[in-house]
Amino acid sequence: MESYRLTTLPNGTRIASIEMPHMQSVSIGIWVGVGGRYEPQPICGISHFIEHLMFKGTKRRTAKKITEAVEGLGGYLNAFTTEDHTCYYAKAHANHLNTVCDVLGDMYLNSQFAPAEIEREREVIREEILMYHDNPSQHVQELLSETLWPNHPLGRPLTGTAETISGLTRDQFFQFKEAHYNGSTTIVTVAGRTTHECVVETFAPLLSGLPAGQVPAFDTALEVGTEPAVTAIKQEIEQTHLAMGFYAFGRADERRFALKLLSVLLGENMSSRLFQKLREKYGFCYSVQSGIVSLEDTGALTIFAGLDPAKQEKAVRVILQEIERIASQPPSRNELRKAQDYTIGQTLLGLESTTNQIMWMGESILSYGTVQDPAEIERRLLAVTPQEICNVAAYCLQRARLGMAVVGPEPDTAKIQSWLR
């Protein structure tokens, strides 16, 4: 595989690419380093709203023409918003690189935010908010963020609320975009059957007019509480959905490799401890999974499960037992090696995709200022020892660092807190 290449334009815009000449496709992403955590409370949800509006028409193209320009070539076009960035991306046959780049660039630079489109999309986002609330597995994730980071932008929903979405104005959209969409925050990533020279030649004229601007500041997240925090919401559903989160550390911390492997050992696949115990041994749930939240100044190890309400207490106690075990007893070298091989294998398999490659490049540059070398990540993962896993578990998986959210038919906050003490 070719190596990653990175070019920085005079205005600060970074363009990264990897040549994959054996592929027929090309994937393109335009990233901006701003998301939900940069929003003051009165305009919560504006980054996500702007993401929607960028598809709704430019000076040259209507909303329909934007989608037709890419889908009509057999490609696709999409976007997403996170806590600290927004990404607009597309994939098509490599022969159509110039067309797709032109569409993405046109959206990024020239979206009109027409009043009629704003009102139409306001209704769409209201429905999206209701959809997430009707989906308990989604709703419990939002509640967990609110529990871990109360009264902070990280604890607010990325979609905003019905109240904030109703109040956003066209002027606010333009002001927010002008303040945050600039050369210092913009990154382009391209992977597939093309060359770096071609990518730079295509995007430099499109994006060189962006003002240099500056990287926005955010409110630092603080860990709160000295005992487990619980949020419970009653919803007339058959299952109880629970989410547990333990405060971790920022993504630059050297312990991040051990934390990732700890998550794999606990619940990222069917071989994991929690899956084997909760599903295979006891039949408490259909699925249980762990994961990592990784941000500049903070992070969390999360655990999600959907359960029969009658089995919730037993399941929580089993989870806590497994947490205590891994925090006091290092895994065997054999178990750790399987987790290392799984993590490395999943990474390398993912990088066979042009879309996953642009995600790798964009997230790397946003997080570390450069594209991470997968071989170096592999080396760092293989260097983690069983004792380092135990040390990270002992640091993160403390009851005082725990937040828990529950959505179910009869949640009892006081009873849940008694299980966690």
Features:
single chain; 421 residues; alpha+beta; Cytochrome Bc1 Complex, Chain A, domain 1; 2 domains; six-stranded mixed sheet; five-stranded mixed sheet; 16 helices
Give an overview in words.
This protein is α+β, with helices and mostly antiparallel strands. The chain folds into two domains: 5-207, Cytochrome Bc1 Complex, Chain A, domain 1, CATH 3.30.830.10; 229-420, Metalloenzyme, LuxS/M16 peptidase-like (Cytochrome Bc1 Complex, Chain A, domain 1). Helix content is 46%, strand content 19%. The protein has a six-stranded mixed β-sheet, with helices on both faces. A five-stranded mixed β-sheet has the order 7-11-8-10-9, sandwiched between helices. α9 packs across α15 and α11 (312-328) packs across α15. The N and C termini lie far apart (51 Å).
Shape summary: globular
What is the chain-wise order of helices and strands?
A: EEEHHEEHHHHHEHEEHHEEHHHHHEH
**CATH class designation of the largest domain:** Alpha Beta
CATH superfamily of the largest domain: Metalloenzyme, LuxS/M16 peptidase-like
How is this structure best summarized?
This protein has helices at residues 46-53, 63-71, 97-110, 115-134, 136-148, 162-167, 170-180, 196-207, 256-267, 273-281, 312-328, 333-350, 354-368, 374-382, 386-396, 413-420; strands at 5-8, 14-19, 25-32, 76-81, 86-93, 186-192, 229-234, 240-247, 285-294, 299-307, 402-408.
